Fold this sequence. Notes:
The complex is a heterodimer. By secondary structure, chain A is of the alpha/beta class. Chain A has helices at residues 14-22, 54-60, 73-82; strands spanning 3-7, 28-31, 50-53, 68-71, 85-88. Chain B has one domain: DsrEFH-like (Hypothetical Protein Ychn, Chain: A), CATH 3.40.1260. Chain B has a five-stranded parallel beta sheet. The longest helix of chain B is centred in the N-terminal third of the chain and has 14 residues, at 16-29. Chain B is globular and about 40 Å long. Classes of the chains: A alpha/beta, B alpha/beta.
Amino acid sequence: xxxxxxxxKSPEHPRFRLCLEAVGDADQLLLIENAVLALSVEGIKxxxxxxxxxxxxxxxxxxxxxxxxxxxxxxxxxxxAAADRVISW
Amino acid sequence: xxxxxxxxxxxxGNWSGREALDMALSLAAFDQxxxxxxxxxxxxxxxxxxxxxxxxxxxxxxxxxxATVFGIEELLADQDALQRYGLGAEDLLDGVAxxxxxxxLLANYLHVVCQ
Lengths: 89, 115
């Protein structure tokens, strides 16, 4: 079962770690809202291919390199549609 | 359509946990299989000894005591949280199952809500 985990908490929020622990090998993690701030924090290891919502990155002035997929809302909808289960943390 | 509701915030400090419990009781009222998992500070919901009268609140332990009667399938307590807060099975409400929060546990539920 493929789960899309949508995380909007900043790295300090206790649920940030709770979410990371839940992400399985077959799952996907999408960072939105405050969670995108994690991309500017040294030493946070995010599981799998990193995806983040472009508008939230721009809003917060977080610049990313090629290792991050900056997607838009249509991409987010496509991800959710393709997942067997979606969990919003 | 099994549902797991995760409570990770301490009782009494804010209302989110009570909303999660209301959600669980509503689901149960409509015969949806729902369980509650307490992790992190949320583990403190399960203490047997609670007396919030001095802060003018109703004991969440009393709400939970009736949970299985109202159709909530399981009250689950995360081991690490128990350890962190120095709680043992004897400190908890009756009928609480001690488990471990991980991917395998979550895989049992189609819907997971973290409140």
